[in-house]
Amino acid sequence: MPDMLALAAQNLLSPVILCFVLGLLAAVARSDLTIPEAVAKGMSIYLLFAIGFKGGVAVAAHGVDLTLGKAMLAGIVLSFLLPFLAFALLRAITAMSVTDAAAVAAHYGSISIVTFVTATSVLQAQGIAAEGYMVAVAAAMEAPAIISALWLASRGGARSEGDGDLWREIFLNGSIVLLVGSFLIGAITGDKGMARIEAFIVTPFQGVLCLFLLDMGLVAGRGLAQAGKLLRGGTLAFGMVMPLLGATAALMAGLGLGLSTGGVALFMVLGASASYIAVPAAMRVALPEANPSLSLSLALGITFPFNLTLGIPLYIAIAQSLTGG
């Protein structure tokens, strides 16, 4: 246990995590520090392209095989099943309606690509290798949770919109298109493609990520005021308990797949994170009666900071402890 705590503390004191904390504290202190929206959007595009491209290059080197297929299948199944656990927990410890509980559950079955990118960066800083194809697993885990959440909502009598607009939001969401597209480009061009743009997507990556997480800290901190009105008692507890449950389920899956230390840690991060980009867009179309402020306050105001400051170091430490990495 002391070794695990020491590893967690070491991972916590990384530039990317500390930049997020800086933004969070600045927002809480009501500083006028801001990152222009256009700049933040540009940084997110850069990060998605870089992580997708590097994952594609890694798959090109590794090759498409049964190991990759099993990992993607495990991710899809995990994403589909986690909303059932989240929904049951919400209905047991909160007074949420069926519609709101289903919408929140969708967020917690899907993933936060920013949390994934941050964890990847922390692993690299610690010299811990991970399977490059985990970015493909992340992309595959975006949508299944939406499907299971819609079933939960309809079973409870809530009205859902199953038209083409919903599927467009799911599969043509900008973050998914960019992540999958850059992944395919990296897989097609391989090491030769990486050699051409390495100076652009490798060297500046850490600095851009630090500034992006500074902005995310500002966003999360300024949302805490609203979160305080919406998140009380069982709802607040859910935002911190559900990531641990999701990480535990992913841990068992990752160990069963025989992933490396880094791969297990990233799988835990995917299981623990909650979407605040793709799923809110889909829920706006599919469950218009759901309260979006509730879902976003939980995902972005509670679970995102929890994962970045405490979760990622903890998941890495547990993965190292159980895999011997």
Radius of gyration over C-alpha positions, nearest whole angstrom? 19 Å
Mean pLDDT: 86
* Percentage of residues in helical conformation: over 70%
The count of β-strands is 0
Q: Encode the helix/strand succession as letters.
A: HHHHHHHHHHHHHHHH
* CATH fold name: Na+/H+ antiporter like fold
Main β-sheet, in a few words?
none
Uncertain runs are: none
CATH class: Mainly Alpha
Distance between the termini: 16 Å
User: Strand fraction band?
Assistant: under 5%
Total domains: 1
Given the structure, what is the number of helices? 16
The CATH architecture classification is Up-down Bundle
Describe the global form: globular
Structural class: mainly alpha
What's this model, at a glance?
By secondary structure, the chain is mainly alpha-helical. 80% of the residues lie in helices and 0% in strands.
Task: Write up what this structure looks like.
Helices cover 80% and strands 0% of the residues. The protein is mostly helical. It has one domain (2-323): Na+/H+ antiporter like fold. Helix 2 packs parallel to helix 11 (205-222), helix 12 (224-230) crosses helix 16 and helix 13 (234-257) runs parallel beside helix 16 (292-323).
